Amino acid sequence: MHVIFGSSGVVGSAVLTELHRKGLPARGVYRSRRPPHHAGEVARVDLETGDGLDASLAGAKAVFLATGDMIDQVAAELRVVEAARRAGARRIVKLSIMSAESEAFFYARIHRAIERGVEASGLPYTLLRPGGFMQNFIHYYGHAIRTEGVLRLPCHDFEENVIDARDIARVAAECLSSDRFEGEALTLCGPAPLSYSAMVAEISARTGRNVTFASISAEAFRASMLPYAVSQEHVDGISAMLRFHQEGRGTKTSDAVFDVTGARPRSFQDFAREHASSWLP
Questions:
Q1: Fold of 2-133+162-190+251-265
Q2: Which residues in 136-197 belong to E strands, given as ranges?
Q3: Per UniProt, what is one Pfam family of this protein (predicted)?
C-alpha cells in the first residue's frame, strides 16, 4: 500500500492520480478535506496530535510525506516518519523545498530539520526539493489576477523556474514505486527560468487581458496575507524565500524530472494555455 499524506493538496492529489494511472494501490491521508476519487482508501489523521496515525499506516509499503503550513510542522512530519518506521514501511518520499540544504530562510530551516529526521530514521528515502508551483498562479495569485489584472509580490521582477505540481507528482510516483533514487535529494524545476513579468505576459497573451506584475513591500504583503496565514512568521518566510531566490542563490535549472520520468517537465507557456480560463473574471 502507498500511503499519501497531504492527499487533498495540490501535489498529494496529483500523486494519487499518478499512482492510479500506474495501477498501484493508494491510501489518501487527510485532515479536513477528503482526497479526490483516485484514492482507493482514505484515512483521517490529526498530525498535531497523532490521532489516527498508526491506523493510517497499517500495511504501508511506501509513504509520501507532505503537509501544509502548521505551527509545528517539524514535529508533525517527524511523527509520521517514526510511525512509518514502526509500521515497517520500506520507503519514504519527503516533499521538501528548493534550497532546503541552505537553511538560509524560514521554510528551508523547517524542511531541512525534517529531512534530517528522515535521513536518521533508517528508512530508505528520497527527498524532493521543488521550486515554486505553477499552480500558485491559480490558487494563491489567481484572485488578484482575475479581479484586478495584477500579480503583487514582495520582490523585484526576477527569473524563477517554476514547476507544474503534476511533474512533481510524476517524480514522486516513480520514487515511491522504485529504489532507483534512494538516498538522493532531487531538485525539481521546470524547463527554463522565466521572469515574473514574462509569466504574467504569457497569462495576458492567453486571456486577452492586460495582466501586470507589481513589486510591493514586505509590510504590504504581510498585511494582505496575514488574515489567511498560519502565523506572521510564515508570511514573512515567503518574503525571505523570494529574496533568497531574487539574489540568485537558488537553483535555476535541473534535469531531475527528465532523469526520473524520461519526460520533460511542462512549460509555463503550456500551463498558461491549459488554464487560461482560471484567470478570466
A1: Rossmann fold (3.40.50)
A2: 150-153, 159-160, 185-188, 194-195
A3: NmrA
